[in-house]
Amino acid sequence: MSETNVSVNAELRTVAEKITEHELEAAGRSEVLLDVDDLSVTLFTEDGELPAIRSLSFVMRTGETLAVVGESGCGKSMTALSIMGLLPQPPAKIVGGSIRLEGTDLAQLSRDEMRAYRGSKIGMIFQEPMTSLNPVMRAGRQIREGILVHNPQMDKKEADERALEMIRLVGIPAPEKVFRSYPHELSGGMRQRVMIAMALACQPSLLICDEPTTALDVTIQAQILQLIDRMRAELGTAVMLITHDMGVVSEMADWVAVMYAGHLVEYTTASELFTNPKHPYSIGLINSIPSMDDVVDKLFAIPGNVPMLDELPHGCPFHPRCPYARDVCRQECPSVAALDGDENHTVACWMFDQTKWGE
């Protein structure tokens, strides 16, 4: 490595440390909104029990953005559905742990009890708005319906005014026209804005965004992400952002949870992850981001694929794809542990257990 690169990396690391210190100070002033502790979800199928999520733990604070990243099949959407109480039952079932929202364990609530939380306390934006909106109901009425469910004392005229206000809030031009439009009459970006308006209509304290820009073109993607971040800043809503796009993570996230095959493998602040990633999978994800500075003949890719739930390897689930794997990785699954005693940076990898790694 050249002296110039070393100098640049050192400067980036210094800046990242200052950003991380600021983020941690802000986190210390914020209240914990969501506390997911040791969550485990299993799919009970004809072929046996398949572990979809194993011992997942993280916290979210008021007004912060947590990005949940990983390849398809890593358990990101299953985590979101667990929090929303929308797991397909059967075959999915929460078999352990808790999901505490403002002190209430959502995992212990019945389906009827969860309805009081969905929309009012937790909102969700799905990947494809066309399949999430009712095709035979006008956009304004769909927003109004959610408002009336959680505010039964409100009359329809007042609910209509509130729905129109939400349409204006998310930056839709000609809001009165969109209010009267059916989903098929709107563009993809407009439909996604309607979804955001629906999700925020009752001002939930937590907004879950499950790859909200997947079906949109690049220009509209940027607008939607800016809108979500503006809503977070103005309304104080905590945002869980599920995404594949590490560029989006670097721009929007305060904290990052890296998942692999249903396991949490690394959890830390965004600035720390991008300048000091520790888990080999996290390093692989970041190295997969094309660089504007380096000219390469071939982009980096992590070899292999995420294993199917019925084919999970023994030991660490990432070891078949890991360039550093040793015998201990093939024999035992590592637990998430603080890195050098830092509870704000946790990793599940045997490399940071000197007793096991040195054997």
From TrEMBL:
Q: Where in the cell is it found?
A: Cell membrane
One GO MF term attached to the UniProt entry: ATP binding
**Quick one: where is this thing mainly located?**
membrane
An example GO BP is: peptide transport
Offer a single GO CC term for the protein: plasma membrane
Looking up InterPro entries in the UniProt record yields: AAA+_ATPase, ABC_Ni/Peptide_Import, ABC_transporter-like_ATP-bd, ABC_transporter-like_CS, Oligopep_ABC_C, P-loop_NTPase
Q: Which UniProt keywords apply?
A: ATP-binding, Cell membrane, Membrane, Nucleotide-binding, Transport
| Topology versus the membrane | Peripheral membrane protein
A Pfam family found in this protein is ABC_tran
Residue ranges constituting the ABC transporter domain according to the UniProt record? 34-286
PROSITE patterns, per database record:
ABC_TRANSPORTER_1, ABC_TRANSPORTER_2
- Which family does this protein fall into? Belongs to the ABC transporter superfamily.
The name on file for this protein is ABC transporter ATP-binding protein
The scientific name of the source species is Thermophilibacter immobilis
